[in-house]
Amino acid sequence: MSSPGVDGDPKPPCLPRNGLVKLPGQSNSLGAASITKGTPAVKNRLCQPPPPPALPPPSLAAPLPRATLAGGPCPSVGLPLGGPASSLAPGPPAERLPLAIDEKILNGLFWYFSACEKCVLAQVCRAWRRVLYQPKFWAGLTPVLHAKELYNVLPSGEKEFVNLQGFATRGFEGFCLVGVSDLDICEFIDNYALSKKGVKAMSLKRSTITDAGLEVMLEQMQGVVRLELSGCNDFTEAGLWSSLSARITSLSVSDCINVADDAIAAISQLLPNLAELSLQAYHVTDTALAYFTARQGHSTHTLRLLSCWEITNHGVVNVVHSLPNLTALSLSGCSKVTDDGVELVAENLRKLRSLDLSWCPRITDMALEYVACDLHRLEELVLDSLYLRWCCQVQDFGLKHLLAMRSLRLLSLAGCPLLTTSGLSGLVQLQELEELELTNCPGATPELFKYFSQHLPRCLVIE
User: What's 20's DSSP letter?
Assistant: First the structure.
């Protein structure tokens, strides 16, 4: 039964029922929303019909009957939905950006993607690039640029240095340059506006940088405090003497054939604020480790001696007396260091949190006893043996000494050939363990991993 409208006319098609307005169907068969061409503000708007022209203004409308207030049908009088009778007529619906370019949503969404995926997503549109190029999405990452990627070849055949503005926008504090020469480094400094002060870390790998290039780079790039040189065979120890600056706090030198004892002398005398040193040099001897002075003893907390084949227990003596405040020490690949050297470390470096004895073939169960007795703060212990000729001699008996080390968080036994399933199963007593690596360990069986999953639920066991 239809209700009469105002002036006795039949009820219009848009009359409300129970306080809700029924919108008429659209001719484009898209329902209440119509997606049209134009600006984003035009898209996805509701097509609301105008109020019936025969109705009087809101101020002259008759009082609503009791039936209407009780929920019965009432005529539309042009009032905002749900608003009081005295409110003004509504304006157009509030404009809202599409979700695909809503920066608030994108700022939360892009955290779930990897660095490589972010590089691809930044090419979708300008809105995505504007959000993704915020420094917060790239913190802790270092771009790697090969020499051939630093130049664009013009139609004339000439080379033009690439535009690095995108790197500046993302706020990178470090760069890794691979296969570059002295000229490439000079071009990088000239074309990257932030190179003088904004770059804090530089890594050069497999490059032909010479003493002159190293000196120019560290002289021009005054912000560099972390330096890495890997596989660079054209600079000499003289280049270190002429280029190293006291502002450098972290230095890593590896696979550089011209680095020997004199390089350690330059490092110890020119870098009084050195906090971290990583050195891989086959020709460094015990004599070099005696160059460290009391200045490094107060500042240096991390020392990594990697594959320094000539270092013996005498070199370890020099280390423990010169650098008593070490919290991280690696003797990985120092094949001449024995249990006696580990005893010196355990007795004198009580602040150690991390100790790496991987690839040390002369380490036995006795060394683990020294570690367990004296290094009560140790959190990381690495005993990897990836090759048989470099494997340590640790057996099941040695692991029993570690069971009392409640501070241990990481234990790596990858490739240890003498450990059995019975000895490894006892590690479940280390309830504070967070990571256990047993890659290529003969004693690690599927049953053992199942056993660990039941008794060490918080520990990540790497197979």
Answer: B
Q: What share of the chain is helix, strand, coil (3-state, %, to 5)?
A: 35, 15, 50
**Above 60 in pLDDT, residue 52?**
no
The answer to whether 186 and 216 have CB atoms below 8 angstroms apart is yes
Q: Which amino acid is at 311?
A: I
Give ∠ CA 225-226-227 in degrees, rounded to 5: 120
Which residues of 41-91 form beta strands (DSSP E)?
45-46
Mean pLDDT in residue range 431-453: 92
Would you give the DSSP letter of residue 406?
A: T
Residue 15 exposure: Cα atoms within 13 Å on the Cβ side: 18
Reduced to 3 states (helix: H, G, I; strand: E, B; else coil), residue 175 is strand
pLDDT digits 0-9 by tens, 269-278: 999 999 999 9
- In angstroms, the CA 369 to CA 372 distance is 5
**Mind listing the pLDDT tens digit for each residue in 213-265?**
999 999 999 999 999 999 999 999 999 999 999 999 999 999 999 999 999 99
Helix (H, G, I), strand (E, B) or coil at 134: coil
User: What is the C-alpha separation between 365 and 399, in angstroms, rounded?
Assistant: 8
Q: Are strands 250-254 and 151-153 parallel, antiparallel or unpaired?
A: unpaired
Among the residue ranges 4-8, 174-178, 441-445, the one predicted with the least confidence is 4-8
- Helix 339-348 to helix 365-374 angle (10° resolution) is 0
| Tokens coding 126 | 């300008």
Q: Which of 408, 455, 445 is nearest to 423 (CA)?
A: 445
Number of neighbours of residue 453 by Cβ within 10 angstroms:
11
Please choose, from the candidates 219, 216, 215, 230, the residue with its C-alpha nearest in 3D space to the C-alpha of residue 176: 230
